[in-house]
Amino acid sequence: MFKVPDHQVAGHQAGGGKLGPLVDDSGHFYKPLQSDQRGSQELAFYRAFSTDTRIPDHIRKFFPVFHGTKLLEASDGSGLSPHLALEDIVSSRINPCILDAKIGARTWYPQAAEDYLQRCLKKDRETASLELGFRISGLQVHGNKETGVWKPDRTVIQRGSVDETKLTLRKFVSSNPSTDSDIKPDCCFASTVYGGPNGILAQLLVLKSWFEEQTIYHFYSCSVMMVYDKESLLQGKKQGAQIKLVDFAHVIDGKGVIDHNFLGGLCSLIRMISEIVTGPST
Amino acid sequence: MFKVPDHQVAGHQAGGGKLGPLVDDSGHFYKPLQSDQRGSQELAFYRAFSTDTRIPDHIRKFFPVFHGTKLLEASDGSGLSPHLALEDIVSSRINPCILDAKIGARTWYPQAAEDYLQRCLKKDRETASLELGFRISGLQVHGNKETGVWKPDRTVIQRGSVDETKLTLRKFVSSNPSTDSDIKPDCCFASTVYGGPNGILAQLLVLKSWFEEQTIYHFYSCSVMMVYDKESLLQGKKQGAQIKLVDFAHVIDGKGVIDHNFLGGLCSLIRMISEIVTGPST
Known about the structure:
The structure is a homodimer of 282-residue chains.
Chain A: E1 22-23, E2 28-32, H1 37-50, H2 57-60, E3 66-73, E4 80-87, E5 96-103, H3 114-126, H4 129-132, E6 134-142, E7 149-150, H5 154-157, H6 162-171, H7 190-193, H8 200-213, E8 217-219, E9 223-229, H9 230-234, E10 242-246, E11 251-253, H10 260-278
Antiparallel strand pairs in A: 1-2, 2-4, 3-4, 5-6, 5-9, 6-7, 8-11, 9-10
Helix pairs in contact in A: 8-10
């Protein structure tokens, strides 16, 4: 009944006796509660957020629905253990294309312990985060028959330079995604996936407006997931592209200040996607 | 002919045999070129920026006019030395009220040397920068006859908590500014200085729009100066409040990415000022 998800592009993965999330056929995604502070912090966030009346509906839809916790046999065989029961964002998609972008130049919060801070800072400097304000943590794209599914190495992707990251964002909406640098991404889904009144760019702009105002939460080390279904797209179906925020183990109280770290990174991502939608396709 | 400026709230100050900027009665402000890399970097910025045709006029006006360099007797008595000749932003004001806000949670750039980075990081953590996305580097306010000029200790101001910084931003537009915590700032100039179609908030929003787009420069450790003249205000004169960007010793090439660090901090400042203009005066 419970199985390892087919389409995970970032985060800890189950399989091979490791601890990771599970899914079932009811459309739920079960994320094991990390045993340290992170688990309790993520659970506390979901509990507070799901009943927080200050969150408008048009923003709430960008967050996975929370269905409480559930005791499940952990994927690493360690026995019954608590899992967050969440909305499975990709279950309804046949050929889901997914991109996970961890937002913010800084993944650590001001009050963080010194060793944690230095570890995060090192990774922010080694990856694209510091320079770009975000890093792509992973992605998969359903290409054409020749290219198949393109799921590049995560450690390479997250260290991408400015130009490489821009190229990856193009490949995400192309029918010919490939690591081969001779193949120029055709960006043939850019206008339908990124563009349009309900496209990813429009959704990111709505999210941005909220981040310019809200001083409730600061989202450190949190990702924007972008999902679209290649199959629906080719058949001209209505099920459009979607963004969802995920990973809330490092959310802290905003204390009356906007989340300038998240907002800055989000604006950087918006600028790059906007360039793809409106700019020349070179 | 050359003298120490009357109204400096941040940065190195001349006087007492120290090196600092000078002014003359022609409306020029002479900033000594720092002898290390910072001096040459700031000069390079002014030279590049003043001839950069990509900068629209409505943005250029937020930068001091650059009049080249001039050899002057340095204020520390060390003899003739090169100075940047800039527009003196406060010379035309009788009783100038000035606030200097250093923008960005991070004052160091990704390529910075390790010791410089650690020194800046330490200061960003000790001051309000990391938490607020900016820190007030200094200010002076012309109060009423009883309070006189309020020019609080810079080291105290820049370490202000969220609430203290919000309070300082209120005091900047009050007729009764004071360090005394029993005196509640009256915010009686908030609507004319911060608000209105040409007020500081409107100017900051224009600047923000540019930062959402521009990928030319990254402004590290740069300040937004806000200036208004108490005298003109009381007499109902037209000379309104003004913002200017200052301090460009750490400007680097944007390399196709927006300045998400500056933009995030700017949005945080905008949010706080907006709260003063539109919110309850408590």
